[in-house]
Amino acid sequence: MIATRKHGWGRIGSYRLAPRVLAIGFAGAACVALIDVPRAHGDAPDAPPALGTAQALSSAFKHAARQVRESVVHITTSRSAPLASADRSMPRGQALPFDDDFFRRFFDQAPRFRHQPNSTVSGPTQQGQGTGFVLRADGHIVTNHHVVKDAEDVKVRLAGGREYDATVVGADAETDLAVLRVEADDLVPVRLGDSDRVEAGQWVIAVGSPFGLEQTVTAGIVSATGRSDMGLATFEDFIQTDAAINPGNSGGPLVDLRGEVIGVNTAITSRSGGHNGIGFAIPSEIVRNVTGAIIDTGSVSRGWLGVQIQPLTDDLARTFGLDHADGALISEVMPDSPAAKAGVRQGDVVIAVDDEDIRKTSDLLNAVGASSPGTEHELELMRDGSRHTVTVTLGSRVGSGKNSSDAGRATRPLPEQFGLTVSPSPRQGVHGQPDPGVLVEAVQPEGPAAEAGLRRGDVILEVGSHPVADPASFARHLSDTDDASPIRLLIRRGAQRRFVVMNRG
Q1: How far apart are CA 215 and CA 199, in angstroms?
Q2: Is residue 502 within 8 Å of 487, Cβ to Cβ?
Q3: Across the strands, what pairs with 264?
Q4: Contact of 206 with 244, CB cutoff 8 Å
Q5: Could you report the per-residue pLDDT of 342-389, keeping only the tens digit for each?
């Protein structure tokens, strides 16, 4: 450790220090061997009983890692950076959106580019990386949707070093899963396990490419199951683990000691962007259903009830005559929806679907989303303190098809005199349609929108006194304004609304 004291960890990089550590280790081993030669030849002490248990556990970890080694792949992506990446209208001190904590949770998707002021077309190429695993020997590979979202080029590298160009077969943003395909027919698929049997406390390993270090294996336990309401996806039923997961692990397998994949590593909770002991994986049963639908039909078909729901609190529960806060409160019923036709009312509390208890809103969302359109289900409701049962025939959830997350999301550049690009509102209702308003995707530096204070991520709700429904209506309302007059816009930024005034360029 003399080298460490002399130079300090802060000045010696881990890769530069490694040879010195190895050298010290080998030298130390030689000295011990010389001193203990007699003991090594016959009088070694008996191994403690616990050593056998530790070795057995070590063998189990090695077995699990070997089972998936040939199936885990490294994924690299590239795409052109959007105009807003080089946007000088961003307030001083505000981090670029891909650098904030939310995006760090979704792993190594931070764009690698330099600031380019006055960019008018597109920014430099963004590089991304992640992990995936072979699902079928014919070349189908599973990863996260956010790993390949908007990618223009996707490459897959196998454990042996072979590299392939990959195509995106389909993606489902509502569960954050995607299926890729490479032209190979000799791949080694994983064995999907049964995530319904997973319990807190059991050992697991995570395999992936954290920070680009391929085929990295980390170990931990299942910390919890059934995690939801995390705001990571529409349909959430995550396995939580403390196995070390870092940027680049996204899309890789969470594996039990039998070597079966029980989940897809998807997100972490971290203030630093690195491992803090809280990671989340999509259960294998969801993976099985979603990827099977994408491969077989190119889309994911889900049931639709046609209601808005909200969590119950103790205070709300009491006002509805309930003595506990279990259930999903119906805050709105869509006209002519399956729920409306079945007689569901605003203020009803759903407490069971087909005799399966509903304790929170995600239970109802997942139960309906896991069902096929056209299927019948019995809903048990609490209404005015009394139980009611209704039978509902589910409709089809809009926006669940192939690459559904991108349906209707194409950006629309407005005339250069305004200096901004918009797309439909990113907020989705239960019925799958976007809320009113348009999302600001890009703001041209020093243009009218930038001078008005508009930022990427703002949602424009009104032009003058006219509500904005979509990009087409936004453009129409802009064209109807007086060319000589400033344009008043109502925008939503985060949870707040404000008015801004924009002039023409």
Answers
A1: 26
A2: yes
A3: 253, 282
A4: yes
A5: 999 989 999 999 999 999 998 999 999 889 889 999 999 999 889 999
Report how far apart, in Å, the C-alpha atoms of 252 and of each of 97, 190, 327 are. Answer: 25, 11, 34
Q: Can you give the three-state secondary structure of 27-60, one letter per residue?
A: HHHHHHHHHCHHHHCCCCCCCCHHHHHHHHHHHH
Q: Give the whole-angstrom CA distance, residue 267 versus residue 9.
A: 30
pTM for the whole structure: 0.64
- pLDDT tens for residues 132-155? 999 999 999 999 999 999 899 999
Active site residues: 146, 176, 250
- pLDDT attached to residue 426: 64
Quick count: other Cβ atoms within 10 Å of Cβ 11?
A: 9
Burial of 133: CB neighbours in 10 Å, binned 0-12, 13-18, 19+: buried
The encoded tokens of residue 30 equal 């030689």
3-state class of 501 per DSSP?
strand
Inter-residue contact 426 to 436 (CB < 8 Å): no
Taking residues 247-261, report their average pLDDT.
Answer: 95
Cα distance between residue 204 and residue 183, in whole Å: 31
